[in-house]
């Protein structure tokens, strides 16, 4: 963290609908990973700033402007935020791409559109969150109310910066909560701009506050703050475990969306062309920096050679290129450090005896940037490090199988349980495998599809709690049971 003078590219904290200078005077530099150039100086919040943001969120929670607003009016504001985001789609997509390195094709047609859909989906829920009337024994009238959990501390990672923020902010706003958001330090720009758009749409002051900075400082401060009622976290399993431990002191509610090592299972009777496309996109879209990436490929030995041929041909065509070019499909790894981590796993795969079938190298585009070729390891064993640890980069581990009973056991032999895909023309087998896989999402003859209405989250060490869909509303509301005596 360095001291810098304010400049046009300087971004401040966003608290109570205002740009606020950081208490410490510290700023950090955000880098475009494709060009290695600085793109912004961003205010680094500290414990004091975090406390100010939490106080603003607490005040908004009980305010006339938000706390006592009609639910349908909350829905209208969320809908208006979606419209504004749509009007700024190109600006936001460009920000996401220069900050994260993902292809503009993805930012423009996947990331920002999904954010808009999620906002509209939850805008519709705002006035439909309701309780029950419950028949109990005795002359009593019992009903339940669904009340906002309160102040949400949202902590998000760098791979889908705005999407994973929206999965938390949209249901929080729909249920009447308020939010203090700590985006990933590597990618804070869209979160800050989004908060400005929310203010422009009429979201009252203090409802959404953004405090960029280090996880170990700002994230930790949110987890420890007694004024935060719930932490909604997406990130690594390791950090998630620490959050769960530390949140125990104040018994905060916690939802954790963590890592994955998702299996993609291809049976011999699968539509091979569709499976090849699916497997390829399932691991290499988003540069493999995708929690649900299909990073383990289990392929029936009978079709192994043919499938590999198709995958290798595609990998050779999909070389990294300038993320801002509309035809680019493989962007830059988010940071030099992450590039080093991924290269370390490639070395480990080679050392453990897996066979490098495609890629494997760091490359530059126009002499710059942190790129890695789409990389495929063949003859991997499921107990190798590259098949067990989350690489979070463009590296596929291919594991041939002979027996379809064994393959489900192998697919489940991982600490993670985020997602899986199965490819077969046999519908009975497809649904049986879907039932046996221990994962929060299973795709059949498709992979990596998401929708605002379809719940998403993990089994096992991929976390708990569900985002998206009606399920997500449970995580942002408390149930209150009210008893009234009807005895005359
Ligand atoms: P990370 O290191 O766990 O960081 C995630 C967020 O937590 C960042 O904002 C980070 O801040 C913050 N943080 C770090 N230490 C913290 C602490 N002690 N207390 C509170 N917050 C803290 O994960 P990442 O490397 O950014 O993201 C990659 C990981 O996210 C992968 O493992 C991936 O599987 C997972 N992921 C999961 C899903 C899902 O839905 N299940 C989706 C996407 C990603 P700073 O980094 O800014 O310091
Ligand atoms: Mg950046």
What does this protein structure show overall?
The chain is α/β, with parallel strands linked by helices. It folds into two domains: 5-258 and 462-481, Aldehyde Dehydrogenase, Chain A, domain 1 (3-Layer(aba) Sandwich); 263-452, Aldehyde Dehydrogenase, Chain A, domain 2. The chain contains 15 helices and 25 strands. The strands form seven sheets. It has a seven-stranded mixed sheet with strand order 15-18-19-14-13-21-22, with helices on both faces. α4 (104-125) runs parallel beside α5 (161-174). The longest helix is centred in the N-terminal third of the chain and has 22 residues, at 104-125. It is globular and about 75 Å long. The structure holds NADP nicotinamide-adenine-dinucleotide phosphate and magnesium ion (MG).
Q: Using DSSP, what is the number of strands?
A: 25
Strand content: 15-25%
What number is the mean pLDDT? 97
Rg for CA atoms: 23 Å
Bound molecules: NADP nicotinamide-adenine-dinucleotide phosphate, magnesium ion
Q: What is the total number of structural domains?
A: 2
The top-level CATH class of the largest domain is Alpha Beta
- Annotated CATH architecture of the largest domain: 3-Layer(aba) Sandwich
């Amino acid at each position: 963290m360095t001291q810098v003078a304010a400049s046009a590219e300087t971004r401040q904290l966003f608290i109570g609908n205002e740009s606020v200078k950081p208490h410490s005077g510290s700023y950090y530099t955000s880098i475009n990973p494709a060009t290695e150039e600085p793109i912004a100086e961003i205010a680094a919040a500290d414990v004091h700033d975090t406390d100010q943001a939490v106080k603003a969120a607490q005040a908004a929670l009980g305010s006339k402007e938000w706390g006592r607003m009609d639910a349908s009016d909350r829905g209208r504001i969320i809908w208006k935020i979606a419209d504004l985001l749509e009007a700024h789609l190109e600006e936001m997509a460009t920000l996401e791409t220069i900050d994260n390195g993902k292809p503009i094709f993805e930012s423009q047609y996947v990331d920002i559109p999904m954010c808009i859909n999620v906002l509209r989906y939850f805008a519709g829920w705002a006035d439909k969150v309701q309780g029950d009337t419950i028949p109990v024994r005795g002359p009593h009238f019992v009903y339940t109310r669904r009340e906002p959990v309160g102040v949400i501390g949202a902590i998000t990672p760098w791979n889908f910066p705005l999407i994973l923020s929206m999965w938390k902010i949209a249901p929080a706003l729909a249920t009447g909560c308020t939010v203090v958001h700590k985006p990933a330090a590597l990618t804070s720009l869209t979160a800050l701009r989004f908060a400005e758009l929310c203010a422009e749409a009429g979201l009252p002051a203090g409802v959404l506050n953004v405090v960029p900075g280090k996880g170990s400082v700002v994230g930790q401060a949110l987890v420890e703050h007694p004024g935060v009622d719930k932490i909604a976290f997406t990130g690594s399993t390791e950090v998630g475990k620490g959050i769960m431990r530390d949140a125990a002191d104040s018994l905060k509610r916690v939802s954790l969306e963590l890592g994955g090592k998702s299996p993609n299972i291809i049976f011999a009777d699968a539509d091979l062309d569709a499976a090849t496309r699916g497997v390829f996109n399932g691991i290499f879209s988003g540069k493999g920096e995708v929690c649900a990436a299909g990073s383990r490929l289990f392929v029936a030995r009978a079709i192994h050679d043919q499938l590999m041929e198709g995958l290798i041909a595609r990998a050779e065509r999909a070389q990294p290129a300038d993320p801002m070019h509309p035809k680019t499909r493989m962007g830059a790894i988010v940071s030099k450090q992450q590039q080093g981590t991924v290269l370390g796993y490639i070395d480990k795969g080679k050392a453990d005896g897996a066979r490098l079938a495609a890629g494997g190298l760091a490359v530059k585009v126009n002499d710059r940037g942190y790129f890695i070729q789409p990389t495929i390891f063949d003859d991997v064993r499921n107990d190798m490090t590259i098949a067990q640890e989350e690489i979070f980069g463009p590296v596929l581990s291919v594991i041939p199988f002979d027996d379809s009973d064994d393959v489900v056991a192998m697919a489940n032999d991982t600490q993670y349980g985020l997602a899986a895909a199965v490819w077969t023309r046999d519908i009975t087998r497809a649904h049986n495998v879907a039932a046996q896989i221990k994962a929060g999402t299973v795709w059949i003859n498709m992979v990596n599809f998401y929708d605002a209405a379809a719940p998403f989250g993990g089994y096992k060490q991929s976390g708990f709690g569900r985002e998206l869909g009606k399920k997500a509303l449970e995580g942002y509301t408390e149930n209150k049971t009210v008893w009234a005596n009807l005895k005359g």
